[in-house]
Amino acid sequence: MGNQTAAHSTNPFIYKRVLLKISGESLMGKLAYGIDPEMVARVAEEVKAVTSQGVEVCLVIGGGNIFRGISGAASGMERATGDYMGMLATVMNALAMQNALEDADVHTRVLSALPISAVCEPYIRRRAKRHMEKGRVVIFAAGTGNPFFTTDTAAALRATEMNCEAILKGTRVDGVYSADPEKDADAEHYSQLTYMDVLSRDLKVMDASAISLARENTIPMIVFSIEKTGGFEKVLRHEGKFTLITDQPASRPS
């Protein structure tokens, strides 16, 4: 263990406090819907690998594996009602992740934008920051607590409130491409983009509100593959393949 720590110290982390955003679909693993315990446990181990070395981490998890407000609205349900149901789905995912993290001996707190005192704490900014300062992983649930806002926007908002140094979006692919790389073999990988590149090219990274909020607060965004073992730790050192989104023109080779 000592030798491993020494090896890590030669290539320090770029960021000391980050927000990890993952979609609900990421927790499905190979299932058609719901939560795959093996996938949740693997993500928990990714988080543990960096928090054990002093990085402060908070998470926002989507709810698309259980319910998505847009699909509910499309089938005749009122959009606001569908979104509230989606928020409750994120609470379920947050509790599953908390359980996996605590099974891995990582102290974790779930803070919900909707008060559900029986299972998690209400979101209070100062309390959340204090949890992070004490080395606890904080999972933000129920989005912003308001309908018509996505968990992407919630991630950018919470990252701003927590003074995070970066927003990391864990996806199924290792960065942003010109097209879906799972469908188009000729899709171009972007190593670095500006916020305006993402907005003007309508790249499907996060919704426009999230990108604009990150841009306004100059919080770098990094898109990487959460499905690759060790990917979270590598990207915090700017190693491996990923896409960096900042207000600076491209300087990393593609």
Task: Provide tags for this entry.
alpha/beta, Carbamate kinase, 9 helices, 11 strands, 37% helix, globular, disordered N terminus
What does it look like?
This protein has 254 residues and is an alpha/beta fold. The protein has one domain: Acetylglutamate kinase-like (Carbamate kinase), CATH 3.40.1160.10. The protein has helices at 2-9, 37-51, 69-74, 79-103, 125-133, 151-161, 195-200, 208-216, 231-236; strands at residues 17-22, 56-61, 108-112, 121-122, 137-141, 166-171, 176-177, 189-190, 192-194, 221-225, 243-246. The strands form 2 sheets. The chain has a 9-stranded mixed sheet, with helices on both faces. 41% of the residues are buried. The model is unreliable at 1-9 (pLDDT under 50).
Secondary-structure blueprint:
Elements: H1 2-9, E1 17-22, H2 37-51, E2 56-61, H3 69-74, H4 79-103, E3 108-112, E4 121-122, H5 125-133, E5 137-141, H6 151-161, E6 166-171, E7 176-177, E8 189-190, E9 192-194, H7 195-200, H8 208-216, E10 221-225, H9 231-236, E11 243-246
Parallel strand pairs: 1-2, 1-6, 2-5, 3-4, 3-5, 6-10, 9-11
Antiparallel strand pairs: 7-8, 10-11
Helix pairs in contact: 2-4, 6-8
